[in-house]
Amino acid sequence: xxxxxxxxxxxxxxxxxxxxxxxxxxxxxxxxxxxxxxxxxxxxxxxxxxxxxxxxxxxxxxxxxxxxxxxxxxxxxxxxxxxxxxxxxxxxxxxxxxxxxxxxxxxxxxxxxxxxxxxxxxxxxxxxxxxxxxxxxxxxxxxxxxxxxxxxxxxxxxxxxxxxxxxxxxxxxxxxxxxxxxxxxxxxxxxxxxxxxxxxxxxxxxxxxxxxxxxxxxxxxxxxxxxxxxxxxxxxxxxxxxxxxxxxxxxxxxxxxxxxxxxxxxxxxxxxxxxxxxxxxxxxxxxxxxxxxxxxxxxxxxxxxxxxxxxxxxxxxxxxxxxxxxxxxxxxxxxxxxxxxxxxxxxxxxxxxxxxxxxxxxxxxxxxxxxxxxxxxxxxxxxxxxxxxxxxxxxxxxxxxxxxxxxxxxxxxxxxxxxxxxxxxxxxxxxxxxxxxxxxxxxxxxxxxxxxxxxxxxxxxxxxxxxxxxxxxxxxxxxxxxxxxxxxxxxxxxxxxxxxxxxxxxxxxxxxxxxxxxxxxxxxxxxxxxxxxxxxxxxxxxxxxxxxxxxxxxxxxxxxxxxxxxxxxxxxxxxxxxxxxxxxxxxxxxxxxxxxxxxxxxxxxxxxxxxxxxxxxxxxxxxxxxxxxxxxxxxxxxxxxxxxxxxxxxxxxxxxxxxxxxxxxxxxxxxxxxxxxxxxxxxxxxxxxxxxxxxxxxxxxxxxxxxxxxxxxxxxxxxxxxxxxxxxxxxxxxxxxxxxxxxxxxxxxxxxxxxxxxxxxxxxxxxxxxxxxxxxxxxxxxxxxxxxxxxxxxxxxxxxxxxxxxxxxxxxxxxxxxxxxxxxxxxxxxxxxxxxxxxxxxxxxxxxxxxxxxxx
RNA sequence: GCCCCGUUAGCUCAGUGGUAGAGCAUCCGGCUUUUAACCGGUUGAUUCGAGUUCGAUUCUCGGACGGGGCACCA
Length: 856
Fold this sequence. Notes:
This protein is α+β, with helices and mostly antiparallel strands and about 850 residues long. It folds into 4 domains: about 15-20 and about 620-790, Isoleucyl-tRNA Synthetase, Domain 1, CATH 1.10.730.10; about 55-155 and about 525-610, Rossmann fold; about 250-440, Valyl/Leucyl/Isoleucyl-tRNA synthetase, editing domain (Isoleucyl-tRNA Synthetase, domain 2, Alpha-Beta Complex); about 795-855, Ubiquitin-like (UB roll) (Roll), CATH 3.10.20. The chain contains 29 helices and 31 strands. Helix 20 (about 625-635) packs across helix 24 (about 715-735) and helix 25 packs antiparallel against helix 26. The chain binds one RNA strand of 74 nucleotides through helix 8, strand 9, helix 11, strand 13 and helix 12.
């Protein structure tokens, strides 16, 4: 006959099986997720207001373009933000987490042409659809702050900001060669045509000369660079990309007098020290002096033909031609220091828009000039030799240009100087002669912000025959976008064909005038939208000063790497202008930047409509539930790297949630005592046996690990792994411990498990919180504090090595000294066997971890 | 060509100057029929070479492979 204990155990097991079969309901995300989403919304749980006592945390994800549908890649982005938002709230911060729509842009016009739908209607229906998809993920946005950049209430302030730029002299209209995308039929800013292709559609851009509006972002080049140094929590690669794009280079502008009093050709160089090696000048075909240079020379017609052949070639076309081309102009110039007479060439490799559109050709010390000189039989003269070279290498035998710094030769009074010293000395002499100026040049060009398109914010300017460009008075904003413009897709602004829009009066003289028919680059909307969230319904200011002093800057910004230069540089520029106006605190808008990776298709290919491999949010949530989708996407890899979609992976997430579901509901009675004590189970969680000590160790280690991870590095995948590991430990305890449900440590573990899970799987955590009798939302609980004492162990397994190889393990109390551990180790059989017939030479002891016995 | 990052189990990812973990997959058993949403268990790994060290998956150097950025900007 079995004893009382055995009987009880057997009975307990049977009862447990019966109750689990009868009482535990199925986990149904399709039921609980909409339920909680509705309750949270009714309770207005995630709406944020300024607080006098709580510290703020402004968390932002880049606002999406409302293209119609969201897939699981977008879900990853929003989930990442949501986990952080929920965690920060539990940490006691006042979290602002808004969402909105970058609603102006080309696809709406394309859709209008293709389907005969008005861009506004198309955009509105897409927004409605996408908003519902984002809500289905269980995201905790404050929807009362939603913005739509295409609404007059919003674009009124985009126009206001244009006027601010104009007033500050930062907006101007000019004729220039521009990038033109033949597919999208629009001009593009330089950043938007990187690599010679349209950033949106990848089509090769063409070159067109047009009269357009620009912002003087180049005036802020140095400040944009300097600010990067202070952005410690930005990914290094984004900063590198911005630095490369701005492309600052220090040098000097040198003036070469042209023969016969035609004037002078200015060149920019970073290598003044190589001036004596200049054997030609190379100018771009667009150089303004060119017509005068060739006038009267027999070479004139050849030069004109060459320039004409390049006229429509973009920078990329010209520079990608492997071979450098050029034609002699027939003109000569004089070296400002040596007085040497050198020929002037027109070439395809000098960029008209950079520097002065002219360079001095120093073939011996510049690879491009070297290639060109070889091709065209131009003299190559060495003027810099390597510091350690005994003699000057013969120029005719050089395999390539020597581009490093060195020691000057063949440079008159400057010979024997180092390159660096020569640059200083030669620049000083040139300045004294009036033939040179120290200069800083940038690759960055001014930002082209006008677009000959319909679906954008109209530029609030009026063209008066008498007063030229006159800004629309602020009181007349917004300049409304008329609904009835003909959208045909042909070039030219659609607004031009709407007389009721175009015809107006000049605010200055009252005479008849016309409006600027162009609209603004949508990157303007996204350059300031994050400030509008702060007081989205304010009709008097773009953002309230009180709100901006509390919330700005954005503490944590999440978005794709594709905006490393584009949106993130434009926004920084805007913010610095606004800082100069005293309209925002600080001068950087985004303190911490995080670039999330992509979700790829199951075969590691990019997920896109054209691949036909997209998995929509609706579909994924319907099939698996939002919590499983969230858990899978957070677990599948570190947030910054790409990972492939995996149906088995998401099934794994479901399994994990089901395990928690069963575990918590099966052991729900365990939580009752601590509910009666007002949730203070943690303090009563003192362990009474070894298993409880182990369980508490695990629980508190996980609290610390997950909290640290979310505070700092944000590798959310490791947090999910830690939760899985905790489930294993809790499960093991329940299976092995006879009175699990009476153990305070176990109750603490279950409760903690739910709290740790809450940011990741908010619905199931909330549902179980309620089902286990807790009051209030789990999302308004405090993040648990870990007990440092629980992280200490009574007994530690110290590894024993012999000659660096693991041979055994001994149990020791923490802090045991070397000799005591050695005494214990010697009697371990596997260790003793290794020590036989050997002399112990040395002991290496790492306290509480390891003893290595070196013996031979 | 230059610069940066990475390479851990079959797959996707953790981790550590000293015992290498998770999920999925595999295999075994249970449950019974779940048709890529059951339970328990099992197998299984540090890219290569050299160096530093008592001990290297971890640190250093070099190679291979993969990813990213820059590339006529004077």
